[in-house]
Specification:
Length: 720
């Protein structure tokens, strides 16, 4: 992509502000599939991925309370899906977009398909949860409600309600106000039905927000007969309803959960008098008022109460009304109280030392010796934080530059950068204010860093900065020498414990020179460089990867060995998929690992018969991007921050770095081979999206366990 195309993309984003769909390029992405037989709809593929998460909750081989967490992950994923993807669909429907969209189907048809699949998965979810609670009870763990408490527990819950919960409740009497209160996005509410049996006209309805933002959703209560007991915050509120509404005369009182999901897209205005920081801050406030995209309710709610609520919310004819169980926001299962029984959890394995860093007191010295590749979470992210801390106090280090997309809540990365500023280093931070759902956090850290004296660059107009770069300049013999880190995942010590990612630490002059050029581009957007080593979007990544695929096609047609092995989160981009189809038809052997959305249809005669696709869902989130091309025997290796999606290739600043070290190439090859061998947690991606486990051979392979063993063995051999 040349500079004119980049400028075109930016102009398109600005022009989109005048349309009813806020981001024109999103519509382009969603309309990029045109023939149903050739592509899988991205929304349906995503739901298939989330079903794989649900499979983990169902798998009896997964430890019991880890399965409960997978229910939480599934629920959290689904909430975001509705806020983002379904929100965009709804905007398309509101804008009157008709057919020939999203694989020859209208947005309304896709919405209908989504609704049907979600309802089926909801039924699976309910069955799995019921089975899990029974299994928990077999392990003496009980989730009890307000009706199941013994005398000791009742006394405890009453005290907890009075001291912790009651002060947080703000009951709103719904019949006494003209308008229904605004329902916040993804927040739980209890609709209270206060009934007089013989005088229904004098019955009262109330609304209470469940304060799960300030109180834990699950509360440990005293054991009963040797059983561990946990109660939900919702049920503690139900327990105290008599106290809350004691002034009313009633025969019965009931509480039913409702939850609204809203469109989470940011509408950023184009007022030139405001800074981008101000625009994002204001649009975050507007997000809270986003249009409804899903309304979930307790299926046991009385019809008259549901009818009252829907009428007052003007949702009678709303498409995404979802009847559910007594409890919603199952994402809170991810923070279920710790139970003192190791058998209920995955075995804890400490991060391994890196063989090339364990002997070195100075990480900069180690990088001077050779390129180093870190693999999270198998090795510790602390090496990167230690590098920043070392650079902060090294008298010869003059500057640190870094891109930040998502950081940890109490970020040691930020603390290390502030320490560097205090020690007189020039610190430049490119922080992406539009990192979805992390905008408020990034605004906070922007202010914190700015107050400390960092130079802040808040992204690039029209493009998201998604690359993972750190660049350290050190004066050695009066000459500036550069050290760079180029990663596949965020500089975030929290997610690095859960996400599988890689980081190259290098002193290679060609690579560090080009990293410096990328930071020049962040500083001065007109400085567009012709990269010879790094592969950078939106400038050249699409074209470069297409050329590598074309080379494999030419070699296959010439009778030479040709293959493409790639790993990514999502494969959606139509042009890249068509290139892979071309390669398959030419005889190129293609093996893909796609964790999430995959719009490519593998295994189709005369189109994709030479393409195999698997998806691995296990205890860690597969997040890294790796690309290997046969290249006529001179194999090319890349790690990248980018998936093959329109947004990554056209609308984001992304970086793929070549791996030049033969030792590290061998390491990546083994890493990928172990993933391809997985026949325990790998699912086969196919046209019918049935998520069949890949079961091949007599020997069992589980990539995430085998990779840890491989790196452990590598360390042992180095020690010997």
């Amino acid at each position: 992509m040349n500079l004119y195309e980049v400028l075109y993309n930016r102009i398109a984003v600005v022009l989109s502000k005048y349309n009813s769909i806020p981001i024109l390029s999103k519509l382009i992405e969603m309309t990029s599939m045109s023939e149903a037989d050739d592509y899988i709809n991205r929304e349906i593929s995503w739901l298939s991925f989330n079903e794989r998460v649900l499979q983990e909750a169902k798998d009896p081989e997964v430890p019991l309370l880890e399965r409960l967490k997978f229910l939480g992950i599934y629920s959290s994923n689904l909430d975001e899906f509705f806020s983002v993807r379904v929100g965009t669909l709804q905007r398309m429907i509101d804008a009157g977009v008709k057919s020939n969209v999203m694989i020859d189907l209208s947005p309304k048809r896709i919405m209908k398909d989504i609704h049907g699949i979600v309802l089926e998965l909801r039924d699976d979810f309910d069955k799995i949860f019921t089975n899990l609670t029974k299994e928990m009870e077999n392990n003496n763990i009980f989730i009890v409600d307000e009706t199941q408490l013994d005398e000791v527990q009742r006394k405890y819950v009453k005290t907890y309600f009075q001291e912790k919960v009651r002060p947080r409740l703000i009951p709103i009497m719904l019949k006494d106000i003209p308008d229904f209160p605004y329902l916040k996005n993804q927040v739980l509410y209890l609709v209270i039905d206060i009934r007089k049996k013989w005088d229904p006209q004098n019955s009262k309805f109330a609304l209470i927000e469940v304060p799960a933002d300030v109180l834990p959703r699950f509360i440990n209560i005293p054991d009963s007969n040797g059983n561990k007991c946990v109660i939900m915050l919702d049920d503690i509120i139900r327990f105290g309803l008599d106290d809350v509404f004691s002034t009313f005369d009633y025969d019965s009182i009931g509480a039913y959960t409702i939850k609204m999901t809203r469109d989470a897209e940011l509408d950023i205005d184009d007022d030139v008098t405001k800074s981008f920081f101000e625009k994002v801050s204001e649009s975050l406030e507007e997000r809270k008022k986003g249009q409804p995209v899903r309304f979930v309710y307790d299926r046991e709610i009385p019809y008259y109460l549901l009818d009252f609520v829907l009428k007052r919310l003007d949702l009678q004819n709303f498409d995404n009304l979802v009847p559910g169980g007594k409890y919603h926001n199952a994402k809170d299962f991810m923070s279920f109280p710790k139970i003192d029984n190791d058998a209920l959890y995955y075995e804890k394995r400490s991060p391994l030392p890196h063989k090339d860093l364990r002997r070195h007191k100075s990480i900069l010295a180690a990088i001077r010796e050779k390129d180093i590749l870190l693999h999270y979470p198998y090795q510790s992210f602390d090496y990167f934080i230690d590098l920043l801390r070392e650079a902060a106090i090294d008298p010869n280090v003059s500057s640190i530059k870094v891109t930040l997309y998502r950081v940890a809540r109490n970020s040691n990365v930020i603390n290390a950068l502030i320490n560097a500023i205090a020690n007189g280093k020039k610190v430049t931070v490119v922080i992406e204010l539009q990192a979805r759902f992390d905008e408020e956090s990034n605004i906070y850290w922007t202010q914190k860093l700015e107050a400390a004296g960092a130079r802040i660059i808040d992204g690039v107009p029209g493009l998201k900065v998604h690359s993972k770069l750190c660049h350290i300049t050190r004066i050695e013999d009066d000459i500036p020498v550069h050290y760079s880190c180029i990663g596949t995942g965020n500089f975030n010590e929290s997610t690095a414990k859960l996400y599988c990612d890689h980081m190259l630490m290098t002193n290679h002059p060609d690579l560090t020179f080009e990293v410096e050029k990328i930071f020049d581009f962040f500083d001065h957007n007109y400085k567009v460089y012709d990269y010879k080593h790094l592969v950078v979007s939106p400038l050249q990544m699409r074209g470069m990867f297409e050329r590598y695929i074309d080379d494999e096609i030419a070699n296959a047609r010439a009778g030479k060995k040709a293959f493409i092995h790639a790993k990514m989160n999502s494969l959606v981009d139509r042009d890249m998929i068509n290139k892979l189809y071309d390669a398959s038809r030419a005889g190129v052997a293609i093996k893909l690992i796609v964790r999430g959305i995959c719009s490519l249809v593998p295994g189709v005669q005369k189109q994709s018969e030479n393409i195999e696709v698997i998806s691995i869902v296990d205890k860690y989130l597969e997040h890294s991007r790796i690309f290997i091309f046969c290249n006529n025997g001179d194999e090319k290796y890349f790690i990248s921050s980018a998936d093959w999606m329109v947004r990554n290739l056209n609308r984001r600043v992304e970086v793929a770095t070549p791996i030049y070290s033969p030792e590290l190439q061998k390491e990546i090859r083994e890493y990928m081979n172990l993933q391809f061998l997985d026949n325990t947690k790998a699912r086969i991606v196919n046209d019918i999206q049935n998520n069949q486990y890949k079961k091949e051979g007599e020997r069992s392979f589980r990539a995430q366990e085998d990779i840890y063993t491989f790196l452990e063995k590598q360390l042992d051999e180095d020690i010997q």
